[in-house]
Amino acid sequence: MSAQENHAMVRTVASTQSEMTEIILPNDTNLLGNLLGGRLMHFIDLTGAVAAFRHSRTYVVTAAMDHIDFIQPVRLGDLVTLKASVNRAFTSSMEVGVRVEAENTRTGAVTHVASAYIVYVAVDEHGRVQKVPQLKPETPNEIRRYEDALRRREHRERESARRVEAKLAVAARAEAQEKPQQSGSSIH
Ligand SMILES: CC(C)(COP(=O)(O)OP(=O)(O)OC[C@H]1O[C@@H](n2cnc3c(N)ncnc32)[C@H](O)[C@@H]1OP(=O)(O)O)[C@@H](O)C(=O)NCCC(=O)NCCS
């Protein structure tokens, strides 16, 4: 299928869904017996990438992960279930939402422990950016997430522009501070 044909396709949110369950073992935890944050981010990235694969049917790379709230600790021996689906597809990028729940194996109690939004970009085997199919939200929740994803993308773009401006301002200040010293040293 050509890149244009792939981009013209329309997929449903349901067709992108992915789910993963892990049992939390000693190697996954800190000295207090709680799941390590970095390990959870790894699970989140993998589950999100599967949803992005299912939508794009290409290779994908992680472009950005929004801040994650770790709402509750996950304990050694808990089951962690991650559920992901594509919220919105743009030209070559896709925003994926991931929800994480922990289940106490003895009581069966399930708690929401974290959520994250991740942006994946479709690429070919040489790392060149590829267009992705469009996403059709169907249920009220899918439509809400679809609309929110555009707002988050605009927010990310504003934040990215702000960071570039801040870096340029720091570089300009550093250059301005260096100049008088350079001219001063030439006097001696
Ligand atoms: C992500 C990457 C492919 C983008 O390449 P690029 O040359 O900046 O591509 P473009 O400027 O054409 O942007 C392509 C898309 O990526 C999106 N994008 C790029 N950087 C982004 C960022 N930091 N956050 C969110 N989206 C981003 C753009 O919005 C654009 O989306 P659209 O086509 O849907 O409008 C490139 O930056 C990259 O390879 N980064 C490293 C990825 C990586 O190693 N991840 C960790 C391991 S998987």
TrEMBL record:
A GO molecular function held by the record: long-chain fatty acyl-CoA hydrolase activity
HotDog ACOT-type domain sequence ranges: 14-126
Domain of life assignment: Bacteria
A Pfam family annotated for this UniProt entry: 4HBT
Keyword Hydrolase: yes
One of the GO BP terms on file: acyl-CoA metabolic process
UniProtKB keywords: Hydrolase
Cellular-component GO terms for this entry: cytosol
InterPro entries named in the record: Cytosol_ACT, HOTDOG_ACOT, HotDog_dom_sf, Thioestr_dom
Similarity-based family: Belongs to the acyl coenzyme A hydrolase family.
Protein name per Swiss-Prot or TrEMBL: Thioesterase domain protein
